[in-house]
Amino acid sequence: VQLVESGGGLVQPGGSLRLSCAASGFTFNTYIMSWYRQAPGKEREWVASITSSGGSTGYADSVKGRFTISTDNAKNTVYLQMNSLKPEDSAVYYCKAGVSSGYWGQGTQVTVSS
Fold this sequence. Notes:
The protein is mainly beta. It is built from no helices and eleven strands.
């Protein structure tokens, strides 16, 4: 099983980034896929989730209306479109497959700073 995140980087406040997570080694379209983030000195927190069919999504209040999670089952990839970024969005972003234990990627750094 492998989850590989990409798309992180440095962006100015108000800017946008799109994170990608390419999955392999399991049946992608049967798993709930999620994004989490962890800022320095803080616990890892849930950001967003999407059902295997893509028909249902959920977002943390802190990102609702600014972030959009989506999947491309043909590419076994989950995305996180992040708009109107704020400095407090700076963190390492991780994708996860599954609900309880599941599988984790290695993370990608997002830094929002002027």
